[in-house]
Amino acid sequence: MKDSVNLLSHHPSGVHEAPAGPPDTPVQLCAFFVGEDEYALDIQRVEEVLPLQRVTPIPHAPSFVEGVVHLRGVILPVVDLRKRLQGQPSVESRKARLLVCRLGARRVAVKVERVAEVLRARRGDIKPAPALTVAGRSPFVVGVCGPPDRLRLLLDLKALLRAELEREAIRPAR
Prior knowledge:
With 174 residues, the protein is mainly beta. It is built from 3 helices and 11 strands; from the N terminus they run βββββαββββββαα. 11% of the residues lie in helices and 40% in strands.
């Protein structure tokens, strides 16, 4: 699986990913809710969707990292997207899910409040995020798609977690 996933038929300045395909190429997105807002990830990033599991807290982790889970012999960090995006803890409910996502060679469990659907869109229907949202730093909202009354923000999970991934990469071995 390639690491760089680019769904935009053209990308905003500052986003450097592999060239996109033709605008009529279909893509699949996993749509989900964080609070009242709807987001989407490229389905190629999502390995599986799981019900919430017991999370073991990690001392001194970033506030949005709830801890880790043990999934079939592998320890995965759990990121609360509501804390990361909105600064407040997610609301516990029976609809909350963990999206197990691949970020290069790493895997991470992303906690969302509700999975909405897997949707199909044409690459050309995904519009770049407005320039105001990407000015001066690595954008994690890279696109917008959907009808005007139900816009979904397309997240770049790798950009959203970049600082933590880089910190992990330079952490000394013990």
